[in-house]
Amino acid sequence: KDLLIARGLNQPLLATPGNPVNGITTNTAENANLRVPILGETPTALTDNEFTGGSWYHSLQATLRKQASRGLAFQATYTYSRAASNTTIYNDPGNLSLDWARAAFDRTHRFTTNFDYQLPSVVHSAVLKGWTLAGIVIIQSGLPMTLTDPNGGGVYGHAGTSTVTLCPGASYASLVTSGSAGSRLNQWIDTGAICAPAAVGSDGSTGYGTAGQSIMQGPGQFNTDFSLGKTTRVGGLREDAMLAFRLEFYNALNHPQFSNPGTSLGTATFGVITQSAVAPRLIQVAVKYLF
After folding, report:
1. Is the pLDDT of residue 278 over 80?
2. Contact assessment for residue 289 and residue 241, using Cβ atoms and an 8 Å cutoff
3. If you average pLDDT over every residue of the chain, what do you get?
4. How large is the average pLDDT for residues 169-178?
5. Which residues contact residue 61 at a Cβ distance below 8 angstroms, ignoring those fewer than 6 apart?
6. CB-hemisphere CA count at 13 Å for 255?
7. Nearest to 161 by CA among 186, 201, 203, 197
8. pLDDT digit string, tens, across residues 4-25
9. What is the pLDDT of residues 77-86, one digit of tens each?
10. Across-strand partners of 217?
11. Cβ neighbours of residue 114 under 8 Å, at least 6 residues apart?
12. Do residues 166 and 195 touch, judged by C-beta distance below 8 A?
């Protein structure tokens, strides 16, 4: 707890004839600057940096480890977890309880395994002896996504960033399009489940969205890295000098892994994945002389 957050302080108040704000009795986008707590400043002008944020992390972790046996050592780990915080503020900046959600870095499931194998030599030869194969495999859930609507919060002068508004009868599950990750690259989000924010002002200006934060999940990750190496005593500058050779494969299976799509409603990239999270297969060869 006691984490630093930045919270807006000048969000316009809603006025009524029986409870006017600075003499204003109606709510419109145009008079938002006249309904602020501190006149003379815009709804987005004042920000308070305070240590009122919080976060927590819960997890179940399991590890299987096997020490070297006939040249093989490996480890496998699995983590089932949830990290949550309220340090990112959407919608009403005066109500932090609405901002508790999965943290931006949260991954529900994460499995990793790594191994190191000293390859056996069937022939006692300096060329065939001393080879090592190593690798690491990572499989993990996607990162959370918060969908925002630039058209929300107009009656408040857009004092806070608005989330989207779900249509009547729609749920967060309704936002997920069907199919594999590769088939969803251009439509990760079903916009049919999203409606315009409710009109609050007399001029039709909008309130904030109804959705929470981290309501969807981006693409997961499956990555493999391998290396093949050999160290040989070659002498030279020193009697015990070694020559180390390594052949390394990053994203060895060349598995496509994608970043989250755009999350701002109404933009060209909303629900569209335009970037990869991991580079295509990379092969690196290295030779070192150790003395």
Report:
1. yes
2. yes
3. 93
4. 97
5. 77, 78, 79, 80, 81
6. 16
7. 197
8. 999 999 999 999 999 999 999 9
9. 999 999 999 9
10. 144
11. 74, 75, 134, 135, 136, 137
12. yes
Q: By the 8 A CB rule, do 263 and 178 touch?
A: no
b/e sequence 148-183, b meaning 16+ C-beta within 10 Å: bbebbbbbbbbbbbbbbbbeeebeeeebbbeeeeee
List of residues 6+ apart from 143 with CB closer than 8 A: 104, 105, 106, 107, 217, 218, 260
Separation CA 30–CA 205 (nearest Å): 9
Residue with tokens 């990572």: 138
Q: Which of 257, 253, 149 is nearest to 209 (CA)?
A: 149
153 in Cβ contact with 199 (< 8 Å): no
Q: What is the pLDDT of residues 25-53, one digit of tens each?
A: 999 999 999 999 999 999 999 999 999 99
Number of neighbours of residue 258 by Cβ within 10 angstroms? 21
Q: What is the pLDDT of residue 125?
A: 60
- DSSP-assigned states of every residue in 147-193: -B-TTTTGGGTT-SPPBPEEPTT--GGGGBPPS-TGGGTT-SB-GGG
Residue carrying the six token digits 């994945």: 273
Using a 10 angstrom Cβ sphere, with 0-12 exposed, 13-18 middle and 19 or more buried, the burial of residue 126 is exposed
123 has pLDDT over 80: no
The amino acid that residue 260 corresponds to is: N
DSSP 8-state secondary structure symbol assigned to residue 262? B
Tens digit of each residue's pLDDT (9 = 90 or more) over 193-227: 999 999 999 999 999 999 999 999 999 999 999 99
**Are the C-beta atoms of 46 and 38 separated by less than 8 Å?**
yes
pLDDT of residue 214: 97
Q: Chain centroid to CA 112: how far?
A: 18
